[in-house]
Amino acid sequence: MRPILVMATTGIALCIGASHALAAGQVARDQLLAQAPDSTRALSLNVHRDGDSDIALEIQPMQVFTQDAELIIVGADGKQEHAALPNTRYFRVQGTQMNGILAIPDNGEEFGLIQDNAGFQQLKFGGDGSLRLHAIDTSSGAARSFQCENDQSIGDMERSQASNADEPRVAPSSALAAPYTARIAIETDNEYLARFSGNTITATNYVGSLIGFISTIYDAEVQTNMQVSFLRLWASPDPFVQTKPACLMLESGKYWNDNQAATSRTTMHFLSGKTTTAGIAWIGVLCSGPFTATLVQVGETTTTCPGLSDSANYGGGYGTTEGISGNFNAANPSVIWDVDSVAHEIGHNFNSPHTHCYNNIGGNASPIDQCSNSGNGCYAGATSLPGPQGVGSGTIMSYCHLLPGGFSNTTLTFGTGHPYGVAPERVPSRMFAHVQQRASSSPSCLARINVDLIFKNGFD
């Protein structure tokens, strides 16, 4: 298993003595569910690792859906109805070089995903109610050649007012006490719900777990939490007929500009169950209103996007990821691809191009890596990894997974403290600068919410 670099997510080291940890034999599930959902207190729980000694993890309630979140289910009759969110509890999980999420539903299997310096692990309850970590072999799943279509026209996808100007480096602890909060609206299609055999509860929980895990990465490096503010599931035929990611993004963008203008969000992301494993997103569009865009801007035509006009109100804070698997177990780690793909596309909304396009961005003339040679102002030479094959030398915004070694070439980091590539910290720095700029002009869109640091309240 390749090594994975994981960033610390608070400015305070977590040091827990054995006397503070609950015994592994105690019922961890009951201990966690006994906490109030809005609690800021963290439990220290013993967790058993396969073939290794027990460790203590700090597990803290986490708000994945906003207080005013809307869940809309479009029934078989085509009628849209508001539904109550499933009674699922979400928890942030932290430990020494470990970070992740645990979701506990009322019914059904829990979702626990952890990344550490050894790779990915599944966090589950054992038969005795204790928590257990099971290693995930990312090489056991089917290989996926996920493609981001932004490279087709990288300049025309750029919508940020900041453009390519040099941007300030992120001070690692400058905003930890009051991170920004991004309201993420999620649109889906009928194919997405079909991935869950029509089970709206499971489909909703997967969105919460996916965005919740991605939020831990953004919180660590971009000082921005994510919460789902809107989710729509389609049990009936949906209005999104385009199959190519760029065409689908334009189609869904126009639908939202025409029908969802009043829906409060920082950005909207489309999760599609269509079989293509690809995505696309506008760059630098947090809190953006509608704008006119053309098919040419995304490298398409009326032939490749049948039924769409050459120009319309397609643009805004939008992105699309196709090929969402919705499947999570240690024997089929396709969820790792889902996390990486969605985090990547939303990263474009946060104003980051691909890492091979960072030449002359952030005070450095070189791209961060040479994993792709797409041209269009980006790197155009022979491709190579920024480090040895299989050690995770690429990052979320890279194309390093397309080189020999596949996903083992990628670490789920934007670049903070990453040892490979040319100044990889330029990515989170640029993203955070965009957050600051957009929050300054639209404070309600990216609110800064004061949070109690763990040691302020102590541990249970």
Description of the structure:
Strands 3, 4, 10, 11, 12, 13, 14, 17 and 18 form a 9-stranded mixed sheet that branches. Strands 1-2-5-6-7-8-9 form a 7-stranded mixed β-barrel. It has a two-stranded antiparallel ribbon with strand order 15-16. It has helices at residues 28-33, 154-157, 190-194, 200-222, 245-259, 334-349, 426-441, 454-457; strands at residues 43-49, 55-61, 65-74, 80-83, 89-95, 98-104, 111-116, 119-125, 131-136, 147-148, 180-188, 224-234, 267-272, 278-281, 291-294, 311-315, 318-322, 446-448. The relative contact order is 0.15. The chain starts with 27 loop residues before the first helix and ends with a helix. With 460 residues, it is of the alpha/beta class. Helices cover 19% and strands 24% of the residues. The chain contains 8 helices and 18 strands. The chain is globular.
